[in-house]
Amino acid sequence: MATAITSMATATPTLDLTRIQNKSTQIAGQNKLEEKSQLHKTLFRITSHPTLTPFRRRVYRILMSVPPGRWTTYSAISKHLNSGPRAIGNAMKNNPFAPAVPCHRVLATDRSLGGYKGEWVNGGEYSTEKMKLLLDEGVEFDGNGKAMGVCFVDFVDFQTVVNRAAATIVLMERAKISTPASVDTAVSRMWYYIPLTSVRISPPTVILIKSPCLIYMSDFRAYERSRIGALFGWGNDTTAPRNIISRIGVSFMSIDTAKDYITTEIPTWSVNNTVTDAIHEWNTDVFSKIRVPTDSSANTTNLRLLYSSLYFMHLMSSDRTGENPLWISDEPFWDDFYTLYLFSMEGTYSAVRSVSTHVLQPPYYESMIRGLIEIYKHQGYLPDGRSGNWNGLVQGGSNGDNVLADAYVKGLRGSINWTEGYAAMVKDAEVTPYNTFDPTDLHPAQKKVEVLSMTGRNLVTYLLTIIHAVFHVQLSIASMTSLSQVAAGIQPADKEKYVNRSAGWQLIWDHDVTSLNFTGFLAPRFANGSYQDGYDPLYCGGCEWSSIAYEGVPWEYTFSIPHDVETLIDFMGGPFTFDSRLDKMFEPGVAKQNLGVNGAGVTTLMNIGNEPDFGTPYLYHYVNKQAKSYSFKDAAYGIPGNSDAGAMNSWLLWQLVGLYPIVTQPNYLIGSPWFPEINMTVNGNKTLRITATGSDYNEGSYYVQSVRVNGKEWDKNWLTHKDIFVDGGSLDFVLGRNMTLWETGDAPPSPGHVTL
Q1: Do the Cβ atoms of 415 and 370 come closer than 8 Å?
Q2: Which residues 6+ apart lie within 8 Å of 383 measured at CB?
Q3: Contacts (Cβ under 8 Å, ≥6 apart) of 72
Q4: What pLDDT is recorded for position 36?
Q5: Is 339 helix (H, G, I), strand (E, B) or coil?
Q6: What is the C-alpha separation between 525 and 532, in angstroms, rounded?
Q7: 3-state SS of the chain: helix, strand, coil percent to 5?
Q8: What whole-number distance in Å separates Cα of residue 400 and Cα of residue 425?
Q9: Domain boundaries for CATH 1.20.1610.10 within the chain
Q10: Mind telling me which GO cellular component terms the entry cites (predicted)?
Q11: How many other CB atoms are found less than 10 A from the CB of residue 44?
């Protein structure tokens, strides 16, 4: 017996699929677009309303799934919500959003109008106006005044729909296959990631067989948070082929679009031809951007590290321009900004990946930045991360700000509207968003941005009401640095304000706490100005969502002040103590906290398998000891952990090249290249040539002896974006076996240097 299974993960559409199909096949249907726009506006009003209870919000969102021309009952809604009809009725009283939230479509169980007699007053539910609205929408009534037709029960919670996903249309085309003897479809409903039911649909309602060679969806049904699959069987047919070949097209927009994808993206039935096309595209668009010697003298391990890093850092984000089911726009549409922990952009660290994209793929990166700004314009805020057309959880600050700022300070302009971009960043900092009541964090979505607009005691008081406060402060002040950098060009009068706010980390710096013979750490602080008793920066509890620090200990986070390392060095006791304290980070056996999978078995405080420590080895540059930033081991405990959507791979890529970008600054710290020659295509069509005379990693010859930038002797351990990445240029190293103090120039700058 031969079977073929195809499955897809999908969620309920924001509108029914027929409307989406019509919209894509006849864009002129502006009434549909206006209806969709009104849907989003109403949902935003419901979510941001200051006094509604979570239950009332949910009732209103459920009501919005009852389409015009249909009706439902109090008991049907109460059954769906596991509540009582009276509770539903109470929630509907004084509906402030009527008739956009259609309480008039809810009837009594006997199909009578229900409610009170009288007129429409203040959005209340009164039968005279109710009857008129239902008749206008096409509902018919019998001679007894009872609604005709079938009660609507396919409810959808539009909070999930609008923010998290959209309709998915899947077409499956088969070749050289006889018509299957059976086709079954199945749906498995998911609710808070816990499967509740498994339903077999028969006869098929999702997949239709069209003999002899096309399988596609024709009878649309939507399932909330569901995984939908289809099973094709040939029974005991001995003539059925042993190999089943199919091509699948997926579209968020229409059947015709999905069909086009099948023929344009997979034009041949030959798997080998498809593989060849994919290899050509990867080589042309990605791998050819960095070229190193690949002859017999090349280190094959380093080659694997380089090109596998390039591969993984280009898997996400996703350019879905032309596949935007949420709004109509000429701007690019991007998704899958999963750049660290859950969906967080964690700008201080993961924007290392953004810099990689900026340098190697500026057209794509410009498009990506425009896509982020577009999300702000239509959904209210920049994402901290995004996937499935949903702005995900906010782990720290508003890290989308850091991605925008890094692009701005490194000169990315093109068609980006930076006035709108700056407005998005300011809103993140100044406007507290609505509360989505996510069970992981019951504070308003992105409410952490509120700390950014506070100073002094107000900031401290607020921080101690939220989770992982040390983590929040560290990331929130990074966002303020981002604002100050963009303000310098867009709104100069704002720069000083945000520079001062970026010093907020100093408000929770405990100058008295001691650990491992070092004094002064970031620490939880109470509203009365005191610090937590018994605090030990070597621990963070579970280092999870409810802890004072997330996936790392305060010892690590205390070093993560990249915008003001000058003040950090002073707070830690000066350059000598700062240097010694950095050494302690790399000392085996010092770590005490069990970080689980994030620890990767590392016993040093320095954990390169996790993003908080990405920049730590390079902090030696700030005391002009670049040679101490060299160490990397090709071993299980010396390489990064999981990819985190390319963040780890981008970090490694920069090590191999011999540079390290400082996010939200136009500066790069100089490392040591791993190849004798590197040619990089930068800024579209320019070339940066890096050479390393005397390089021999097997013999320990990797310490920088001298550097020339564009042919000139260089005495600083850092350079700027403009030096080598705008017009290309040259970077020539002389390497040797001895640690050498070659940098005699100024240490890297601290653009956010402020002492409170």
Answers
A1: yes
A2: 337, 343, 345, 372, 375, 391, 392, 400
A3: 66, 105, 106, 107, 151, 152, 153, 155
A4: 55
A5: coil
A6: 6
A7: 35, 15, 45
A8: 8
A9: 304-661
A10: cytosol; nucleus
A11: 14
pLDDT of 743 reads: 95
Q: 581 by DSSP, 3-state: which?
A: helix
Query: What pLDDT was estimated at residue 723?
Result: 98
Residues 193, 198, 200, 205, CA torsion sign = negative
* CATH 1.10.1380.10 for domain 304-661: no
CA distance 134 to 145: 12
Q: How many residues does the chain have?
A: 756
Residues of the chain with pLDDT below 50 are 1-33, 116-125, 160-167, 176, 187-226, 340-349, 351, 445-468, 636-638
- CA neighbours closer than 13 Å in the CB half-sphere of residue 302: 23
Q: Which residues of 74-111 are buried (b: 16+ CB within 10 A; e: fewer)?
A: bbbbbeebebebebbbebbeebebbebbbbbbbbeeeb
> Residue 42, CB half-sphere, CA atoms under 13 Å: how many?
24
Q: Is 340 exposed, middle or buried (0-12, 13-18, 19+ CB in 10 A)?
A: buried
Write b or e for each residue in 192-213: b if 16 or more Cβ atoms lie within 10 A of its Cβ, otherwise e. Answer: eeeeeeeeebeebebbeeeeee
pLDDT digits (tens, 9 = 90+) for 116-131: 333 334 344 456 778 8
What CA–CA distance (Å, rounded) separates 380 from 427? 9
Q: What is the largest CA-CA distance in the chain?
A: 98
In degrees rounded to 5, what are phi and psi of residue 70? -120, 165
CA distance 414 to 531: 48
Q: Residue 139: its pLDDT value, please?
A: 92
The sign of the dihedral angle between the CA atoms of 187, 189, 194, 196 is negative
The structure tokens listed for 577 are 């103590």
Note if 103 is an active site residue.
yes
pLDDT value for 313: 86
Angle formed by the axes of helices 418-430 and 469-490, to 10°? 150
- Quick check: helix, strand or coil at residue 703? strand
Catalytic residue, from 103, 151, 213, 543: name it.
103
Quote the pLDDT of residue 431.
81
> Within its chain, how far is the Cα of 11 from the centroid?
19
Q: What tokens were used for 444?
A: 């308003």
Query: Which pLDDT value is given to residue 507?
Result: 87
CB 46 within 8 A of CB 101: yes
Q: Tally the C-alpha atoms within 13 A of residue 46's C-alpha that lie toward its C-beta.
A: 30
Asked if 755 contacts 503 with a C-beta cutoff of 8 angstroms, the reply is yes
Residues spanned by CATH 1.10.10.10 within the chain?
A: 17-159
Kindly state which CATH superfamily the domain 667-736 is placed in: GH92 mannosidase domain (3.30.2080.10)
Distance CA 607, CA 614 (A): 8
Q: Which residues contact residue 141 at a Cβ distance below 8 angstroms, ignoring those fewer than 6 apart?
A: 131, 134, 135, 147, 148
Answer whether 728's CB lies under 8 Å from 687's CB: yes
* Cα distance from N-terminal residue to C-terminal residue, the chain: 75
| pLDDT value for 340 | 38
pLDDT tens readout for residues 539-548: 887 777 667 7
Q: Which fold has domain 17-159?
A: Arc Repressor Mutant, subunit A (1.10.10)
The 3-state secondary structure of 135-160, one letter per residue: HHCCCCECCCCCECCCCCCCCCCHHH
Encoded amino acid at 483, one letter: L
- Where does CATH 3.30.2080.10 sit in the chain? 667-736
Q: Which of 312, 266, 261, 325 is nearest to 21 (CA)?
A: 325
Query: Nearest to residue 449, comparing CAs of 482, 416, 421?
Result: 482
CA trace torsion 241, 247, 248, 253 (10° rounding):
-140
CA distances from residue 170 to 99, 212, 261 in whole angstroms, order as listed: 35, 18, 11
